[in-house]
Amino acid sequence: MDFLLGQLFGFADALAALVLDPWTNLYLIASVFLGIVVCALPGLTATLAVTILTGFFGNKIPLDYALIALLGAYVGAIYGGSCPSILLNIPGTAASAATAMDGYPLAKEGRGAEALGLTPTASCLGTLVGTVAFLIFVWVLLLFSKSIASPEKALLALFEILLSRTLMSEDLAIKGRIAGLLGLALAMVGMDPILSEARYSFGWSYLLSGVAVVPVLKGAFAIPRITEGLRHVETGRMLDLQGRILPNWRAVRRYLPTIGRSGVIGTGVGALPGPPLRSRRVWWR
Fold this sequence. Notes:
Helices cover about 70% and strands about 0% of the residues.
């Protein structure tokens, strides 16, 4: 217990030193802004934003500041992808696909500003929940990791796939099973990472690298949305962003139980190995 408290206090001291450093705040603000700008364009992922900014921050500033800037760019990119999801119903990143399900209907009701403000607030609070859980349980995981071999890893991955049937739908578990099987089928397309053999490429060299996330996102969200807009053209009609974007304390307190519950669910699901599950929708209404 004393060791755990010492680690928590050490983390708090290091965090306070970073917060009080003006250069850290400058690099952090600039990198978050660049990450938001990059991933506000649909099709550009958070990984691509970090890759692009690595060339600017990698060898031109000290290592500590570079790592902080890249982390800020990644977090900003995740939020940047939610902007087109809420306003256009076109996810900017794969992680913001679930945001489009509830964010765009709110924008059509005139509550787009509320959705844009609650998205980073909920992400920040959820990240704090995950950080605290990591600091508490990482030492327990280190003890168990010594006894985990390949069979246990395979069982954990299988458990996460089975978990998708309960997270996908509340009415029919078969929807989650179908989605899990489709995800496995898409993941098996391309070169085998161990044997380097082509799988389900059907002789097409285009499929040797697997199914990319960006084309799937564009085909599933962007193209249908653009086609619908071309079929039903309404000139002079724009989404009305009413109210303030920055949420007040009353709004945050209203959704705090949902944010805390979602943070715990995200921490538990994200701790499992295998493909990440982003199927749980967060209800704001």
